[in-house]
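Q: Okay, next protein. This is Oxygen tolerance from Psychroflexus sediminis. I've checked the sequence twice, so it should be correct. Can you predict the 3D structure?
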Amino acid sequence: MLKKQKGKNLKQEKTGNMKQIAFLLFLLLGWSSIAQVTFTAEASRPQLGINERLKVEFKVDANGDNFIPPSFNGFTKIGGPNQSISQSWVNGKSTFQKTYTYFFQPAKRGTFTIGQAEITVDGQVYKTSPIQVEVTAAVDTPNQSRAVAEAEDGIHLIAEVSDSKPYLNEGIYVVYKLFFSSTVNIRNWRPLDNPKFEGFWSQNIDIDQLELKEGEFGGQPYRYVELRKTVLYPQKTGELKIEPLSLAVSVEVPTDRRDFFGRRMYDVVEKNFSANTKTIDVKPLPEEGKPEGFSGAVGEFDFQLKASEKTVVAQTSFELSSEVSGKGNLKLFNLPKIQTPSAFEVYEPERSENVRTSSLGMRGSITEKYTVIPEFKGDYVIQPTTFSYFNPRTEAYERLQSEPIKIKVEPNPQRPEETVASANDTAKPQNMIASKNTFNYIKLDTSLKAKGKTQFFQSPLYWTLFFIPFLSIPLMLIFGKVKNRATDENQLQQKRASKLAKRYLSEAKKNIGDSKAFYESLERALHNYMKARLKIQTLDMQKEKIQALFAQKGVSQETTENFIKILESCELARYTPTVTEDMQKNFKQAARVISEIDREV
């Protein structure tokens, strides 16, 4: 009886242990099922071209609900969300996965962050980690999409360059053509990404109305339109790349469906096209035969020097005009300085441009007008001025020389005592002063004093006391000057900076409101300031050379970076829409940088 009772107790104890173990296993399994819920986000690739597509998947291994997608800034959604569920049993083990899939097209270049998505599983909220995706310029071989494969063979975007091996500063152009076969119907297109012409001075040619033309592509008849033309002037030698233009084109694609009358039905899909990257090999200008004072003019030009008057009155002004006309890089070089007789007072020239840009490059003229005031009467000769340029057609340097100009200066009726200056004199004529011995016969000194008496007047003590106040004036001035030197220097720098800004940026200020004209004149003003202040030529307007020159002149790193940023902003802003507030901000930044450079140099 005792043995039976013991066996029963052992059995009950064993059963209780089994229940505890089962309960613990249940808790552990439940805890592990909660702890093992994973919610992840995956992008098909971390980097893609603007003409490629991106797939983003959000995966959760539990049956959740209330899915909240993140914001997709920088991307345009072209498909999704597509939801799929997969569940399987392998060796008694269950697996579950729910997937939300999106398809995107990049809207612009840059680095973008896909934020956190949210989902709720058993009352618990789970979030994904952010994903960074970099969008670059268009690639030559984009990843393909089956949705628009039918449109691939019928549409081509081509970039054509007029000359792939130009000289430095020789004008070329690139034209973008969209070819499409007669079987393809195009609804419309929009630009996805504009190319950046780094290393070039560039200007777009406006196309007022697109014209449909007939042509060939791959030996087959095609229709095409010229979408854009851009004139380029290479600013450095070596290999330069022209980034591709990317377009989103809406195309009608045939389907297997038929309408009531049996005609094939079409779907409209959007397909991205990009022209291939073009490489330009820029040749340097030859060193052999390069004239002294060559300022970088490349093209075919005429040069003349003209005077508004040949006979003038002394102390009255006339105008002297230096003009270069023709075709070439007219906006990218300086006109030669004129040489005038020393008896002429010459003011800084006013530059004016009458230049039109077409696919053949810049044509027109640039003029510098000097205001000249002759000081003395006489016959003078303005010596010839030489202008040199490189002609890419003949591959040689050419020199042009103006004719000498004779100027007759008549006496000014209000200054009859004025002397006559010789036309051959190089020094400035001086007024004649008579010999000091001419009036020696007149006795000028007197001695009116009584003999034997000492007088205070004109005595040493008298003169000492007389001159002490006058001698103290320079000391007071020196003391005041030392005390206020810092203030005076700041005021002078401010005045100088104000004059510099007014002188170089006046044209840009007039064009605020017109993005294209403003940034062209702002870039030209910065170049002219560099040429005038630091004696740097257009050929040296490169980032590395500017940094080296600024470092040599003692300009700070911050000022150097600000100057280069403004130049880059000018180049970018010509092809992107800007508002007046941005132009005013850039104008103020340019004036401040000019002031800083002038102060530090």
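A: Here is a summary of the prediction. Residues 30-34, 145-151, 421-441 have pLDDT under 50 and may be disordered. The first strand starts at residue 39 and ends at 43.
Q: Noted. On to the next one.
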